[in-house]
């Protein structure tokens, strides 16, 4: 029964991918990690050997190793935590205000031509002014420096949220609203059951973008006129010549900015279970 | 009670739908002019015409989305003033609420009428069963095929027992095979429920297959060109397309449509060149 043939175990030759490439998933990951490692090494070299190219110089730039050491120390200090707390509170307040007012205004403007004619012209005139250009004005308008910071954060987030909401409302197919009316829905029901869910993908996008711009504006404001906060901390590190701390501050800004945007998007996606569902 | 729920029956009203000397004008463009049509309760009427002839405008006027410039529409003895649950609408696309499940979509009408949730869901389930989608109540519309979505749209309109079901080329976006099975489905449902239907299409075969009467419309401004009674057996046999009457009716409709297309072409030619 046993065939006399011996099974010769052939060595496994790597099979060619149908697209003719031997570039596999594992190699891709290795390349990516290697790329980051190379960049970090170049930075280390540039700092340690104080590269100076005239137009750009690394003489005072801290090396990654110094930054890592600084980070370990700082992350345990209560001072840094307190700065972060200030920034987070400002972001939270400003963004929340912008979300509430932006979405409400956006829904009204999207649904009513009269409201659009009344409310949009002054807003459109203000829109080209970047939020950070408001900083001196904010200092004049708001006696409390904390409130002026929150105002900057608010201005940063307002327009992305407002405009995305308006677009979201306007883009809802007329046949959906017509169907709702045909099924006996009144104005309030249409707003609740059709407009808000229909505009929500756009609104979530606006909120995510708004969170990002909010961080950017806050950090800038803190650097210019703040007393506390992670932006202020980063700037202060420069003036106190703790250069490694600058990079720690930058990294934290990046991490918290990304994390908060991601959080907004994640919450938004959870609230829209139908979005992304496709035919089997 | 759960395995064989009684088939829903719409109380056929004694009144009809009447479109009386309807003229609809948008700015300076006359879409529909002196359009007159009376529909008896329980009738299946197809509005047939070339694209742009105003048949959707007529439908939208009956639905209440468009105001007549002259004339009026009377449904169940009451003049139409705006959209309402007595006139159910099924569009070709973008009818269903993508953020609601099939069950929530179909239960929307009953809930808007103030029915408590449980009662609304019960009614919705009856009609979801009627269109054969019981297994999909918890699905979102994007998870369903085009044909299934249209069936949900039909259930969503019928659950409210409308006086007239308005359908605007509902099968136009479907492939030929799905379209033909949907036509059979629709007739089967209609036979059970017995409601009045006003169905807009540009497909002659579809119109003759489905309808008790085919009303051929002229190109813009739209008006009634012919009102052809369809004398074919119900339920439609499989070989209905081979019936002599079918061919004759189709010939009549095609001739009318061809004449209309030529007329509008001549008019356009005169205007443009």
Query: Which stretches of chain A of 5+ consecutive residues score pLDDT under 50?
Result: none
Q: What's the shape of chain A?
A: flat
Count of individual domains of chain A: 1
Going by CATH, the architecture of the domain at 17-86 and 162-272 in chain B would be: 3-Layer(aba) Sandwich
Biggest sheet details of chain B: 6 strands, mixed
Relevant terms:
heterodimer; A: 280 residues; mainly alpha; MetI-like fold; B: 273 residues; alpha/beta; Rossmann fold; six-stranded mixed β-sheet; four-stranded antiparallel β-sheet; 10 strands; globular
Topology:
The complex is a heterodimer of chains A (280) and B (273).
Chain A: H1 25-48, H2 64-74, H3 78-111, H4 113-126, H5 135-141, H6 145-170, H7 174-182, H8 187-225, H9 230-239, H10 243-270
Helix pairs in contact in A: 2-10, 3-4, 3-6, 3-8, 3-9, 5-6, 6-8, 8-9, 8-10, 9-10
Chain B: E1 17-26, E2 29-39, E3 44-48, H1 55-63, E4 70-75, E5 78-79, E6 87-90, H2 102-112, H3 117-130, H4 146-158, E7 164-168, H5 176-193, E8 196-201, H6 204-210, E9 213-217, E10 224-229, H7 244-272
Parallel strand pairs in B: 3-8, 3-9, 6-7, 7-8
Antiparallel strand pairs in B: 1-2, 1-4, 4-5, 9-10
Helix pairs in contact in B: 2-3, 2-4, 3-4, 6-7
